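Chapter summary example.
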Amino acid sequence: RREPLALINLKKKNEETGEEELASRLDHCKAKATRHIFLIRHSQYNLDGRADKDRTLTPLGREQAELTGRRLASLGLKFDQIIHSSMTRATETTEIISKYLPGVKKISTDLLREGAPIEPDPPVSHWKPDAVQYYEDGARIEAAFRNFIHRADAKQEEDSYEIFVCHANVIRYIVCRALQFPPEGWLRMSLNNGSITHLVIRPNGRVALRTLGDTGFMPPDKITRT
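The structure predicted for these 226 residues follows.
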């Protein structure tokens, strides 16, 4: 509901000024800025932790987050905000990255927590969550997509650069939805820990994928996918 025509009540169109007034109102609703979305997968974490609070970053994971933070800082962009999953591994990754981006505000959200977004097609044998998990997680992750991945507000004057630190399943689903690919194919992609995925959303709503799961800034011995 960000297409300009969807924001106008056509029934209220002035009969005298007609198309001229409509064009003016449409122009007022059109986005002017481009949004740059950087989706960061959390770093390597302790898989043996039973509860989320125990699934902290490993020493290698902390190194990965440092490398990701340096990479983002080296881009020379004025980042507007860092929105991150409330899960421990994403929060810790954010804290390390933010050291390299001083002054950028951080926002935690449950919407970006890891989960099972939609049953994958083709199915895989090594991962079979209960069907109810797709209904619970899927609705939340779809809500995250609709809430965060959209064209700029018409009031936004300048291009924005936003970082989202979350999880592989969430990022893969968001990429499929943003590019209008069948979301059931999300599991066909693989993302390294600490990787950077860059989406661009133009004022007309068109989306481009600049990078997917980039870890070219990491030494080969620091790259993991756990």
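To summarize the output: Residues 1-30 form one domain.
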